[in-house]
Amino acid sequence: MSDSDDDDVLQLSSHTLAALQEFYAEQKQHPDPSGDDKYNIGVIEENWVCECVRISQEVLQLSQFWYSQETALRLAKEAIAAAGEGGRVACVSTPSVYQKLRELRGELVSVCLFEFDRRFAVYGEDFIFYDYSHPLDLPGDVAAHSFDVVIADPPYLSADCLQKTAETVRYLTRGKILLCTGAVMEEEAARLLGVTPCSFLPTHRRVLANEFRCYANYDSGLGHDV
User: Is the distance from CB of 97 to CB of 151 less than 8 angstroms?
Assistant: First the structure.
């Protein structure tokens, strides 16, 4: 992005702002049962309301917290089952799934969130800054093949973004992969990560222009597409 682009201020439409406000209201109805509300995505988003008129289009596209409550919960439960007790889960550009994992995990699994937006650093040591354009530019203490399952949602629907995200996923995982991306990426996802479509169809708070699918490279509880 050029310096001139950085200086541009985008005004959110009334439709977009209304959708954001609806999302905030729903998140308030699902507080973190641990009582540590400062880590709840709804609270984080609430703190951003005053900035909404200044949020750039790039930040909106990179924010991956638009899964429906049902989808975030289903994916989190699958990640816990796949990792097993004492396992490790990596959430790559999937903070809404991370939030559900925090609610569910107890002592079952440990979780790390790999995310570009540094405002998610409120998650403390669980947060690892991640820029998909530099797929292996990770902290030195993030060892190769150190996560039992990796769940990823590339921030852009492009072959380049998927290829670079896949490089990160292959580095992190000990084997199991869950991928959420557009249906148009099915062949490329299979080539890069050996994943196949699941019968479970993820949903979002707003209808997407492109068909969205979930993929796995193991016999998951999300079903097999036929």
Answer: yes
Q: How far apart are CA 106 and CA 109, in angstroms?
A: 7
Alpha helices in the chain (DSSP H): 3-7, 14-28, 41-48, 57-62, 69-83, 95-104, 159-172, 186-193
Sequence-separated (6 or more) residues with CB below 8 Å from residue 218: 82, 175, 176, 177
Q: What is the pLDDT of residue 211?
A: 84
Give the closest residue to 72 by CA, choosing from 7, 23, 6, 19.
23
Count Cβ atoms within 10 A of the Cβ of residue 112 and give its class: 0-12 exposed, 13-18 middle, 19 or more buried: buried
Instruction: Kindly give, in sequence order, each residue whose CB lies less than 8 Å from that of residue 104, ignoring residues fewer than 6 positions away.
Output: 73, 76, 77, 80
The C-alpha atoms of residue 153 and residue 161 are separated, in whole angstroms, by: 10
CB 151 within 8 A of CB 123: no
| Residue ranges of the chain whose pLDDT lies below 70 | 1-65, 207-209, 225-226
Could you give the 3-state DSSP secondary structure of residue 215?
strand
Q: Give 157's contacts (C-beta < 8 A, 6+ positions apart).
A: 181, 182, 184, 185, 210
